[in-house]
Amino acid sequence: MKKLYSALLFLFLALSVHASDSVKNLMSQDTSDVSSLNKGAYDTRLTNPEQTVIIGNKALALAIKLNYDKGIAEAYRTIGIGQYYLNMPEESINSYLSALTYFLKIGDERGEARVDNNIGNLYKDNDYDRSLNYFNKALAIGNKLSDKSIIASAYLNLGNFYSRKQGFNEALKYYNQSKSLFSELKDSVNIIQSSRNIGVVYFRLNQLDLAEKLLTDANKRSKERDLNESVASIDLTLADLYIKANKLDKADNVIAEGLTYSNIIKDEKLVLDFTYTGYELEYKRKNYLKALGYLKEVYHRDSVDEKTNLTSQLNLYFIKNKQEAEQRINQLNEQRIQYENVRFWGATTAAGLCLIVIGLLVNNVKRKTKTNIQLTSLNTEVSRQKDNLDRVNHHLEEIIDERTKDLQIKNKKLSEYSSYLSHQIRGPIATLKGLMNLEKEGLVDMQECITMMNKCVLEIDEKIIEMSDMMHDSKSAL
Questions:
Q1: Residue-by-residue DSSP string for 344-411
Q2: What CA–CA distance (Å, rounded) separates 171 from 153?
Q3: What is the number of alpha carbons within 13 Å of residue 58 lying toward its C-beta?
Q4: Going by C-beta distance under 8 Å and a sequence separation of 6 or more, which residues neighbour residue 227?
Q5: For residues 401 and 224, what is the distance between their CA atoms, to the nearest angstrom?
Q6: Of 76, 172, 299, 396, whose CB count within 10 A is highest?
Q7: How far apart are CA 232 and CA 350, in angstroms?
Q8: What residue ranges of the chain have pLDDT lower than 70?
Q9: CB atoms < 10 A from the CB of 450, how many?
Q10: What is the pLDDT of residues 189-205, one digit of tens each?
Q11: Which residues contact 290 (CB under 8 A, 6 or more apart)?
């Protein structure tokens, strides 16, 4: 029985360990799938942002199913980036704030810094102060963690910020710093982005030859890597540059190319920008009918209205999502507590079952020990009684020998009688020995054995008394 319980306990523990290892391996594989989907979504951001959102949503669904917080956070961030490039600022800020909620929950400062960079980018054309605040937060975390990737991204974004504020010298400083770090990291995509932005600054500084060289090189490398968004953005700046340099045919070509790439990535704002640049080209050509003289005025009015509305919408979404984020944190904390409680009671139940099994094993050992002690005691008692019987028999034989000389006359009669009694005593003794052997082999119940042994002893005792009385009578007769 002890071996059976030990085997069951060993099997239970082995199955538990195997199940635990299997779950861990499965979880590891599934979380790797989430990371792979997130990376794939992020890599398509400059090629097909619509695909970024689609793949990001797949990663998000799988991460939620696995309760994988880091995967959920990165999926929300990636979706927000795709929405940003699709000119969906309201949806983008919602995704970014959801990502930030999860990164803060798990204490992932690197993820937090990346989202800060993303949110700063979203505000850079509408709320300069808020944009700068987010970029500086990201840079502070990058410096704290000595993370060159985060620092380089923050420098790139700060360059964009100062470029829009027309602080071109400050912008160049940050762009060059970011390009240097991205070169160390061998991040070819962001090296292209840095080169493009440096070219834009030189265009703003009216250094057209240097700007054209940098922009055309960045454009070529963007096409090699299928960075459609970068190609379209570079074409827009090149079109302005060619119009300014009076290279109108080149401007016409890059406008047509830029419109193609803008339509590929479904960026309506870029399409509108190229339309306006087309207006400037035709205006410079003095093709007034084609230029549609009111295009510039209408475009500027729409842009101002859009900027004003967008700032208000982003502020409203920021406040709304901040409140929702706090609610989500509370809900997540409650879910976490419930999950920990389930784990605690599961572990407690498993420990209780182990204790029960161990208790049964210990009790079985104690019971067997007690039984062995009782059997040993019984064997001792039986041996003692056997010794007593042997001594009685020996004594009787001596008495018979001594009285034989005195009982020569009745020797035959007493001899027969003695033989008869001896046979009567030997029978119970033989029975007693048989019972002992049966009990040793465990073939008879202990209580039944004791009862039968007592019966044999009583029978022997009666025979002895009978013999004693008969001997006494015989002695009296003599």
A1: HHHHHHHHHHHHHHHHHHHHHHHHHHHHHHHHHHHHHHHHHHHHHHHHHHHHHHHHHHHHHTTTSTTH
A2: 13
A3: 16
A4: 46, 47, 189, 192
A5: 129
A6: 76
A7: 62
A8: 1-29, 292-330, 332-333, 336, 339, 393, 400, 403-418, 420-421, 470-478
A9: 15
A10: 999 999 999 999 999 99
A11: 282
Closest CA to 201 of 167, 230, 242, 152: 167
Q: Would you state the structure tokens that stand for residue 63, as one six-digit string?
A: 């991460």
Whole-number Å distance between alpha carbons of 375 and 384: 14
Q: Cα separation of 462 and 475, whole Å?
A: 20
Contact 91, 83 (CB under 8 A): yes
Report residue 374: phi and psi, to 5°: -65, -40
Amino acid identity for residue 115 in this structure: V
- Those residues whose C-beta lies under 8 Å from the C-beta of residue 468, and which sit 6 or more positions away, are none
Among 187, 135, 130, which Cα is nearest to 158's?
A: 135
In contact, 361 and 6? CB cutoff 8 Å: yes
Identity of residue 95: S
pTM for the model stands at 0.60
CB 248 within 8 A of CB 281: yes
Judged on CB neighbours under 10 Å (0-12, 13-18, 19+), 357 is middle
Cα–Cα distance for residue pair 359/232, rounded to 1 Å: 75
Would you state the pLDDT for residue 293? Answer: 59
- pLDDT 10s digits, 295-326: 655 455 455 445 445 554 555 455 555 556 56
Entry field: residues in the chain: 478
315: left (phi over 0), alpha (psi -120 to 50) or beta: alpha
Rg (CA), the chain: 50
